[in-house]
Write a structure and sequence with these properties.
InterPro entries: DUF6712. This protein is mainly alpha-helical. It contains eight helices and four strands. It has one domain. The strands form two sheets. A two-stranded antiparallel ribbon has the order 1-2.
Length: 176
C-alpha cells in the first residue's frame, strides 16, 4: 500500500509518547495509519482524487498539498496544513481509542501499571471527537486549496462541487 504518512512522519504532527525508532516497526501504528487512510481520507477526498493522489505522491505539484502551503482563495490568504496533517488527525482519532488495548489469545486486555491509572473511556471518546473536529477544520481549508487549484488537480474537479461522500456506506439505526 502507498503510505501517505509513515510512522516517523507522524511524529512531525502528533506526540504519541514514543520515539521514531520505537514506532518505525510498530505494526499497530502502521495498521491504524492504513485504516485511517483507507477509510477517513479516502472518504473525504473521493475515490478518484484519492487514487490520483496516491499515484502522484512524488510529483512536485502535489508536495504543497501533502505538506501544507499558503494560498489565496476568493481574495483571502489562507494556510492549509496539508494532507499529511489531516491524516495524522484521523490517525489520532482512531489511535487514542485503542492505545491501551491489546488483543491476546485470551481476548482484549488493557495495560495497567502500579504507578498509573487507566483513563476513563468517555474521556478518550471526547479526545477522539476533538481530533475529528480538527480534521474537519483542516479538510475545509484543504478543499479551498483544491478548489483554487483545479488546473493543477483536474481529478479534484469532479469532487469539489457537491462535497458529497463518494462511499457507498449505509447506516442503519436500531432501537435499543
Amino acid at each position: 500500500m502507498n503510505q501517505i504518512l509513515t510512522p516517523s512522519n507522524l511524529l512531525d504532527y502528533k506526540d504519541i509518547g514514543q520515539t521514531a525508532n520505537a514506532i518505525s516497526g510498530d505494526t499497530k501504528i502502521i495498521s491504524i495509519i492504513e485504516e485511517a487512510q483507507l477509510t477517513d481520507l479516502k472518504d473525504a477526498l473521493g475515490d478518484k482524487f484519492y487514487f490520483d493522489l496516491l499515484s502522484n505522491l512524488d510529483n512536485p505539484i502535489y508536495q504543497d498539498l501533502l505538506s501544507g502551503s499558503t494560498f489565496n482563495y476568493c481574495g483571502v490568504s489562507y494556510y492549509q496544513n496539508g494532507i499529511k496533517a489531516l491524516l495524522a488527525d484521523y490517525f489520532m482519532a482512531k489511535y487514542i481509542l485503542v492505545v491501551n488495548t491489546n488483543l491476546t489469545g485470551f481476548g482484549a486486555v488493557i495495560k495497567h501499571n502500579n504507578n498509573s491509572e487507566p483513563v476513563d473511556r468517555n474521556s478518550l471518546k471526547d479526545y477522539s471527537n476533538f481530533q475529528l473536529k480538527l480534521a474537519s477544520s483542516k479538510l475545509e481549508i484543504i478543499r479551498y486549496y483544491l478548489n483554487s487549484n483545479t488546473s493543477k488537480f483536474p481529478n479534484w474537479k469532479n469532487n469539489s462541487i457537491t462535497g458529497e461522500s463518494t462511499s457507498n456506506r449505509r447506516f442503519r439505526f436500531r432501537k435499543l
